[in-house]
Design a protein that fits this description.
The model has no long low-confidence stretch (mean pLDDT 90). The chain has 4 helices and no strands. The longest helix has 19 residues.
Length: 71
């Protein structure tokens, strides 16, 4: 994937992207922001995919798979 916010944010579900890296662009998105549109639980679940624990588990799994192919 592309990494960063492009993978961690789901537009319309866990946040919103804004077009340009300017305060005006951010202000435009914030004017339309409706907190009720987003589920705290859904945001937490999405964030868990990028936790340190998940990262370590994924790295360990990749190493195990690589080691298994060497034998």
């Amino acid at each position: 994937g592309k990494g960063g916010v492009t993978e961690s944010l789901i537009s319309g579900k866990t946040g919103e992207f804004f077009k340009d890296p300017t305060s005006e662009s951010l202000q435009e998105v914030m004017k339309k922001f409706d907190q009720k549109k987003y589920s705290s639980e859904e945001c937490r679940e999405q964030a868990k995919q990028f936790s340190r624990k998940t990262f370590v588990q994924n790295i360990e799994q990749e190493i195990s798979m690589l080691m298994a192919t060497r034998t």
